[in-house]
Amino acid sequence: MVSARCKMVVKEELKKLGLHFIMVDLGVVEIMENITAAQQEQLKESLLHSGLELMTDKRAMLIEKIKTAIVEMVHYSDELIKTNFSVFLSEKLNHDYTYMANLFSEVQGTTIEQFIISHKIERIKELIIYDELNITEIAFKMNYSSVAHLSNQFKKVTGLSPSHFKQLKDKRRNPIEEIGKLAGENPISI
Q1: What count of other Cβ atoms lies within 10 Å of the Cβ of residue 52?
Q2: Separation of alpha carbons 180 and 138, rounded Å
Q3: Please, what is the Cα angle at 26 between 43 and 91, to 5 degrees?
Q4: Please, is 82 exposed, middle or buried when counting C-beta atoms within 10 Å of its C-beta (0-12, 13-18, 19+)?
Q5: Could you say which architecture CATH assigns to the domain 114-177?
Q6: For 131-189, how does the pLDDT look when each residue is reduced to its tens digit (9 = 90+)?
Q7: The whole model's pTM is what?
Q8: Nearby residues of 55 by Cβ (< 8 Å), 6 or more positions away
């Protein structure tokens, strides 16, 4: 689960099943009651109809927590990351980064670094479209060492320079849920 829409869908499905939740956050749901196997199966089916997946596998849940932490940091936080992402993820999720990186690559078919870059580029597109910050300010906000570094990475991923992207009339952005997905990947997970 990686968006506010996903959280809303999960809340509605829980209400339909008469389940009371303490918290529904990106990738995590805390329910007041003990959920029966039948209720869990019903929830699983109803979420699948909405394109979401109920996860109970610990490895899959860790991968979703990694994705959620990255999405929150890149898209929803105004704070600069003062440490590198490996330290940030290790501290936030209380796991060894090497373990998380190996697991992520094995299951997702891409590295955590590539997933982060994909999200950073999408956020940069958004900031360019908003046209409130210049490229230097965007580079600083997104924690790039220089405008050149941002520009090179942007061009490598999109095929366009940031300034050329800004000139496009039809600025294509991807939904957060689709960033970093491989063709034919399973539905969005919660």
Answers
A1: 22
A2: 21
A3: 130
A4: exposed
A5: Orthogonal Bundle (1.10)
A6: 899 999 999 999 899 999 999 999 999 999 999 998 886 666 677 777 776 544 444 43
A7: 0.68
A8: 61, 64, 189, 190
Nearest alpha carbon to residue 1 among 47, 38, 42, 40: 47
Per-residue pLDDT at 190: 40
CA 137 – CA 146 distance, rounded (Å): 10
How far is residue 160's CA from residue 91's CA, in Å, rounded to a whole number?
35
Closest CA to 73 of 116, 102, 111, 43: 116
Based on the number of CB atoms within 10 Å of its own CB, is 168 exposed (0-12), middle (13-18) or buried (19 or more)? exposed
Q: Where in the chain is the domain with CATH 1.10.10.60?
A: 114-177
